[in-house]
Design goal:
By secondary structure, the protein is of the alpha/beta class. The protein is built from 13 helices and 20 strands. The strands form five sheets. It has a ten-stranded mixed beta sheet, with helices on both faces. Strands 14, 16, 17 and 18 form a four-stranded mixed beta sheet that branches. It is globular and about 65 Å long.
Length: 436
């Protein structure tokens, strides 16, 4: 049996979709455990290039059960659009199940999200405006609507009417917006319910049977650890928990079943939205990395902030998650750089620190302390083995693993599924993932 939690180790956009797509070939189950359509995975495989926002990346393997877990904030309209786009390109989604416990993103959540962000003025946190935060707020406030409510029109109508009445008080009195009408929402979501009805259910029994049978289960996270609501750079965070522990909770899988926590890291650093990022580059090197990596948001299209690899943040992420193995992606984007830098410590108010600060205002004052490594100045995109990488590239990857004190299990040298080097000596390439 293998239960593998695939978690972003940075601020998201690390290439988790590619890693899930790669490993799903040997998995019987893939579970999307948290986040909403404010996150996106770019997947390139024999079917083509896809941008996934809600559908688990295991969907391309027709033998794999794909689950949208209770920890997800689900906009059902976006899900249907994504399913239709997959159908149009010949990808079957009959193996998709949505937990009845999954909370719904409603039209008023988008209005509230945008109104709240606008009201912050200069203190904007960079939300995508997709309604994810307000949906999670309703979940915590115990007034949210869940996917299972769609199966009972009378119950859904009652709960929707109550929710709209609550939201109108906020929209009108606090933000000066127009009130919203309940009827069009009910009609829209009733039509949605009919299309999604075959996919809605309780995945718990199926997951339990898979675990007992010793099948391989991949748990897919959105965002990254440094955006975690509790352990990220608050308040510039998401509204769920994209950590190993958070994924287990969102998937409904007990911790005792976990065999591998796989941390996905880019070979450099990126961030979307506001908040401190000590290694951010504001020069031609940062722009070169952005253009070479096409670092623009999968969901929003916003340019990503780019910088050198931050091992201080990486060590923190590894500690919070207890990673067994690392996947270092997009190594090829650094092919043209003559010299590379890795941040190994920070200077804070004249003193050296090696721990990631818990307070955002402190992190904002941190200046990176770098060590330099020689670049390799040759293409790595065609490498299909560890020995096929240039020696300088191997040293760079080895240094990342040493600084985070976690073995590197996968090295990505391109977008394609086949552009992945599996490291034989690591836990990720062991029998844990070879099981099927």
């Amino acid at each position: 049996m293998a239960v593998v939690a695939v978690v972003g180790g940075q601020w998201g956009d690390e290439g988790k979709g590619k890693i899930i797509d790669l490993l799903a070939a040997k998995a019987q189950v893939v579970v999307r455990a948290q986040g909403g359509d404010n996150a996106g995975h770019t997947v390139v495989n024999p079917h083509g290039k896809f941008a996934l926002h809600l559908v688990p990346a295991g969907i391309f393997n027709p033998q794999t059960l794909c689950v949208i877990g209770a920890g997800v904030a689900l906009n059902p309209q976006i899900l249907l659009e994504e399913m239709d786009a997959l159908h149009a390109r010949g990808v079957d989604t009959s193996n998709l199940i949505i937990s009845e416990r999954t909370h719904l993103v409603m039209p008023y959540h988008l209005l509230l999200d945008q109104a709240e962000e606008q009201a912050r003025g200069a203190a904007k946190i960079g939300t995508t405006g997709r309604g994810i935060g307000p949906a999670y707020s309703d979940k915590v406030g115990r007034v949210g609507l869940r996917t299972g409510d769609l199966l009972e029109p009378r119950i859904f109508a009652e709960r929707l009417e109550d929710a709209v009445e609550r939201k109108n008080r906020f929209l009108v009195s606090m933000y000066g917006a127009d009130s919203i009408d309940c009827s069009p929402i009910f009609e829209q979501y009733t039509a949605i319910a009919e299309r999604l009805r075959p996919h809605i259910g309780d995945p718990g029994p199926q997951l339990e049977r898979a675990l007992v049978a010793g099948q391989t289960v991949l748990i897919e996270g959105a965002h990254g650890t440094l955006l975690d609501l509790d352990y990220g750079t608050f308040p510039y965070v998401t509204t769920s928990s994209p950590t190993v522990a958070g994924l287990l909770l969102g998937a409904g899988i007990a911790p005792r079943y976990l065999t591998t926590g796989l941390g996905v890291f880019k070979a450099y650093q990126t961030r979307v939205g506001a908040g401190p990022m000590p290694t951010e580059l504001h020069d031609e090197v940062g722009e070169a990395i952005r253009q070479a990596g096409q670092e623009f948001g999968t969901t929003t299209g916003r340019p990503r902030r780019c910088g050198w690899f931050d091992a201080v943040a990486g060590r923190y992420s590894a500690r919070i998650n207890g990673f067994d193995s690392l996947a270092v992606t997009r190594l090829d984007i650094l092919d043209a750089q003559p010299t590379l830098k890795i941040c190994t410590a920070y200077e804070l108010d004249g003193r050296r620190i090696e721990e990631f600060p818990s307070r955002t205002e402190v992190l904002a004052r941190c200046v990176p302390i770098y060590e330099e490594l020689e670049g390799w100045r040759t293409s790595t995109s065609g490498a299909n083995s560890w020995s096929g990488l240039p020696p300088a590239a191997r040293r760079y990857v080895e240094r990342i693993g040493a600084l985070l004190d976690v073995p590197v299990g996968i090295v990505g040298v391109g977008e394609g599924r086949e552009q992945s080097i599996m490291m034989e000596q690591s836990a990720i390439a062991s029998q844990r993932l070879a099981a099927s």
